[in-house]
Amino acid sequence: MADSLPSLAFLGAGSMGGAILQGVIASGIDVEGGITATNRTAEKASALVGLEGVTSVALEEQPAGNKDAAASARIIIVGVKPAMVPDLLREIAPDLRTDAIVVSVAAGVTLATFAEGLGAEARVIRAMPNTPATVGKAVTGLAAGAAASADDVAVVRRLFELVGSVVEVPEDMIDALGTISGSGPAYVFLLIEELTKAAIGKGFDEADARLMAEQTFIGATALLDASGENPAELRRRVTSPKGTTERAIAVLQDAHLDNVFTEATDAALARSRELAAGA
């Protein structure tokens, strides 16, 4: 794995862009040519001032900041709100380097939108990270546009591997990926909420109930990660024949969790398609 990245520009270094930026810095990787990050306000830009190797730009003070940042960087990460993307693309298109790779983390914005704004020859990769990027544990889906080369994808993959794991998919699978890893943290948090409520119902105070539920999830996933085992195998090891866990698992399986998760992710996918159609 190479120990450097080419110059980076984060256009809209908000929550997701900012998480990726922080991951790059925390990794200690060398960024040849440095990092530029833009935000609309001086207040938001001030949060990034002083980070090593980062030039933080407030657009209210430097109106040409996005154009200048895009012109200077090999990899441009577009992290503005989805509705702002078309205008931003038109703004930066004349200034892009010939070897520029444009990466979108704007939810729901298609590669076709980027081709319209930048031209069909532009190298564009669509990325869908999830919120654990903020702690270096993301799952990021990558879908490459037609003009992006294997080398382009490799360098962008290296960038996102600094904040977690990467799955490469065709664009028509990006929305489905979003129903699993994109929305997935919320499913886990909901399960923790409900297990906490069950503990409170059995007489534990809220602090102890939270500790038991939360740390059990954290510990179980850490064990899964460390062991390299299949989760079904780890479940079997906890589930002694004719024991208490077996009885509890039977109740959960009788609730048809397989159908529940299929229906939930199907519903998320249907909503994603509605949003893409402007509904």
TrEMBL record:
Gene3D superfamilies: NAD(P)-binding Rossmann-like Domain, ProC C-terminal domain-like. Pfam families: F420_oxidored (PF03807), P5CR_dimer (PF14748). It catalyses: L-proline + NAD(+) = (S)-1-pyrroline-5-carboxylate + NADH + 2 H(+); L-proline + NADP(+) = (S)-1-pyrroline-5-carboxylate + NADPH + 2 H(+). The keyword Magnesium does not apply. It is an enzyme of class 1 (oxidoreductase). It is found in: Cytoplasm. Belongs to the pyrroline-5-carboxylate reductase family. This is Pyrroline-5-carboxylate reductase. It comes from Microbacterium murale. The lineage of its organism: Bacteria, Bacillati, Actinomycetota, Actinomycetes, Micrococcales. The gene is proC.
